[in-house]
Amino acid sequence: MPQPFHSRLSRRAFGACATLATGAAAAPALAAVRQSGSETIVGEGAHTFRVKHDFPQLPAPYTWQTTHNVAVDGAGNLYVIHEGRKEQKDHPAIFVFDPTGKFLRAFGSQFQGGGHGIEVRQEGSDEFLYVCAYQQVKAFAKLSLDGETVWYKKAPMESGVYAPGEDISTKPSWNRQGFLPTNVAFLDDGGFLLADGYGTFKIHRFDKDAKWVSCFGGAGDGKGTFNTAHGLWVDRRPGREPSIVVTDRAHDTLQIFAMDGTYKETLTGFGLPANVDTWKNLMLVPELKACVTLLDEKNQVVARLGRAVERLGEIQNLRGQPDKWLPGQFVHPHDACFTPNGDIFVAEWVATGRVSKLERV
Known about the structure:
Layout: E1 33-36, E2 39-44, E3 47-52, E4 67-72, E5 78-82, E6 94-97, E7 103-107, E8 115-123, E9 126-133, E10 139-144, E11 149-153, E12 183-186, E13 192-195, E14 202-206, E15 212-217, E16 229-235, E17 243-248, E18 253-257, E19 263-267, E20 277-279, E21 282-287, E22 291-295, E23 301-305, H1 309-314, E24 333-338, E25 344-348, E26 354-360
């Protein structure tokens, strides 16, 4: 049975990234880190960024507790969700910062112990948060930007893929009949997709009223099935047929599907890809193996930012040693998102929390 990434860390797990292959062809070395005065710069040419690690700061009495995902609203405010500790039920799991990194508010204690995915969606004149929580929480929800609950749901038992009682269980179920949702993606008809990334490895489709419609995927060796269907996105980049992109994380690939869930192709050459975002012609892929990758409209790699895969093999438990982290290098990017102007926020899977901002130069 595949185990969650969190429970199988080892030095062996972080060998060098696989050589890029079909669908994600090799690019020039675009992971260079350099200093410009007091600034750290990564990338080259049109894909050059100024790095600001630990961009948002939490005021007391709050503490970072393993950062997971990030999202940005229409005003440029940043939303950060962390897993949180199950024994600290009164501590919020979601923090909000203004575009300068100033703390605004915190909420979401109902996701403590399982906070994972977060996305912002425009619906008419309003914006909403869609949140996924795994571990002991095992739920997904829609919230206002201030944290008010619109709806809160558990396992879709009508799908017929879950063990009896999975919709009321609070015990983590790391098996193919468990429900451990990780991320969402939005459909044009008002519905959405939900990745059960640590449970059944299914991708569920819901309508605009959050009613279950269908699912596809499941556990398998690829080409329509997964080994940890962790992240997903609807790719609407200009000049491309709209498609669903799923990160098949433990296979180190992205799988591409037609909008009806029919398998189309696989992009290889990643290192535990965790999620996806798009901006203009670019696709953004945070990889837990110390890298943030950019692909163009042909899905060719144009930049690998902050890449430091070799250090993961050289330094045991690098994630737990912040004093050994280097400027301009990542440890475990778990999520990343674009801002409206093409800057990038990166959240890393580290217990002390780290959210970096990459400002386009």
